[in-house]
Amino acid sequence: MKFNQSVRFLTLFIAASTALIVLRCGTVQELGFNPLGEMKDPTDNPTNADKIWLGKEFFFDKRLSLDETVSCAVCHKPGLAFTDGLKVSEGIKGRLGNRNSPTLINIGFSERFMFDGEIPTLEMQAIVPIQEHKEMGMDMKALIERLRAVPEYQEAARRIFNRDMDVWVLTRSLAAYQRSLYSNNSDFDRFYYGKQKNAISASAKRGWILFSEKLYCIACHPAPYFTTHTVANNGLYADYGEDKGRFRIKNDSTDIGKFKIPTLRNIQITDPYMHDGSMESLSEVIDHYAKGGKGHVNQHPVIQSFELTKREKSDLIQFLYSLTDMSFMERL
Ligand code: HEC
Ligand code: HEC
Q: Which fold has domain 36-179?
């Protein structure tokens, strides 16, 4: 009874917040510009407010991990645009992973997941961290038993999916929640798509010209997503050592050093950078590109050395900062 009421209340709450989100994004959408376009749900998982609500419950629930200490949100913190601020993530029992936690904003627009750019759906992706020894370390069968014993989850599964709490319910809801995480209301969006001339500073405007016309960044980080959602070798290393990126999928040497191109939205708050968190600042990242990369054989040919004055470098950083979307942060 009580739970039903709270579900109804939550549903209302979600409906109200959705209305608010639409209003908030009005600046962009009113003008006929939703730069992101429509996010397509897979046919086997049409989204709705109930699924998003349930997915959010799971996302923040530490019971998804073996010793009930780690939830998805421990490594994908909303306040850090769904990253964790660490070089590499820390899972149960302080186990360190090999990779830096990527942002999940606009993740529903992506068609391949993880830095290797291989896993084809968000529904499938969700299973990986749950079972990964260094992340949540949980056996899926044991997890479903654990979640089925939680009356709220069992009841929600029956009500929303018309079945018992199972892997389908878990992965469909988690994916639906993640597809609700979008960002299209940064100062840059208001400037570029909303035609509000003063939404970004003169310095950021100069930085945008550098980024889009003088340098080669948009070859891989084009608006509106600031990623092509594909993989590339950006010359991070001359020798990639143990983590060779996409190479591990098919052992194809042309894949060595290819990693999924990260979005640059909210880049101001998603440091440290790169798949291994090896760069602490945007200044360091820019220096890397300015030197023309480390020259790995698979390095993308567009990456060539360039020179920037101190002011130009600061302009480029100001432009990158203009991709921060506080309204996205507020509505979480
Ligand atoms: C211990 C930290 C940790 C936990 C817990 C964790 N993640 Fe992650 N997540 C990561 C790291 C690190 C990566 C990058 C892994 C890689 O590329 O191999 C990642 C990648 C992802 C991606 C792919 C992003 C992209 O751009 O392709 C998604 C989606 C994701 N996580 C969702 C989740 C969900 C859902 C949960 C909970 C079920 C979860 N994560 C739990 C650290 C974590
Ligand atoms: C050939 C494609 C390509 C080009 C061109 C390119 N990048 Fe990247 N960028 C990548 C890839 C791939 C990564 C991730 C590499 C990794 O994780 O090891 C990345 C990472 C980054 C990151 C860190 C993102 C994060 O979340 O860790 C920033 C910032 C960045 N690039 C900015 C730029 C700028 C500025 C330019 C232009 C000077 C540029 N990139 C040009 C492919 C490219």
A: Cytochrome Bc1 Complex; Chain D, domain 2 (1.10.760)
